[in-house]
Amino acid sequence: NPMATRRRTLLKVIVLGDSGVGKTSLMNQYVHNKFSLQYKATIGADFVTKELQIGDKLVTLQIWDTAGQERFQSLGAAFYRGADCCALVYDLNVAKSFDSLDNWHEEFLKQANPSDPKTFPFIVLGNKVDIDGGRSRVVSEKKAADWCASNGNIPYFETSAKEDYNVDEAFLTIAKTALANE
Ligand code: GDP
Ligand code: MG
C-alpha cells in the first residue's frame, strides 16, 4: 500500500528581514499568486499554509509573516517557537537591508534557540531583482554569496515577488532543507 509510506509533515517557516524588503509580497506570490505595489505594512493572519509534495512526503509549509513589528524588532516568542527554517530576506537595491542580515540571523538564533545553531536551516533571499533590470542593485551577487558561505553555507536565491521569479524555487529549497534537518 503506497499510501502507508506517505507521511504528512508540518514545517514552520519564519520570514525575517527589514521592513519593506518584500517579505509579505514573496509569501503572497508563493501562496496566492498575487502581487500588489500598494504598500500594506500589516496583514491579518499570523501565518499562511501551502501544501507540497516532496518525494513520497506530503509537506505542509506553515509560513509565518510579521505584521510590521520588524521595525521595532519586537516579535513575540510565539513567532519564533518551533521554527523549522528561517528565511532571511533583503532588498538587493538597499544596502542597509543587507547589512541587517547579521542582526536578523543573530536575533533568530537568540530567540528561537535551536538545538544545533550550526546546522539549523536558513535561506537568504535577495529580493526585487526586477527593479531597473538589475541596474539599481547595490549588493553584488558575490557579496551576498560570501555572506552565505561564511554563515554555514546558507542557500541563496535572487528573487522577484513582482515578476514571480525564483519564488517557487526558493520556497521549495526552504521545504527541502527543513525536511532534511527533521
Ligand atoms: P515587507 O515589509 O518586507 O513585508 O515588504 P512588502 O511585501 O510589504 O513590500 C514592500 C514594497 O515593496 C511594496 O510596495 C511591494 O509592492 C514592493 N515589492 C515587494 N517585492 C517586490 C519585488 O520583487 N519587486 C518590486 N519591484 N517591488 C516589490
Ligand atoms: Mg510585511
Describe this structure in words.
It is a lipid-anchor. It is found in: Endomembrane system. Keywords: GTP-binding, Lipoprotein, Methylation, Nucleotide-binding, Prenylation, Protein transport, Transport. Belongs to the small GTPase superfamily. Rab family. The protein is α/β, with parallel strands linked by helices and 182 residues long. Helix content is 30%, strand content 23%. The chain has six helices and six strands, in the order βαββαβααβαβα. A six-stranded mixed sheet has the order 2-3-1-4-5-6, sandwiched between helices. A hairpin with a 2-residue loop joins strand 2 (47-54) and strand 3 (57-64). The model has no long low-confidence stretch (mean pLDDT 90).
Please give the structural blueprint.
Blueprint: E1 7-16, H1 23-32, E2 47-54, E3 57-64, H2 77-80, E4 85-91, H3 95-99, H4 101-112, E5 122-127, H5 141-150, E6 156-158, H6 167-180
Parallel strand pairs: 1-3, 1-4, 4-5, 5-6
Antiparallel strand pairs: 2-3
The structure holds guanosine-5'-diphosphate and magnesium ion.
Guanosine-5'-diphosphate binds next to helix 1.
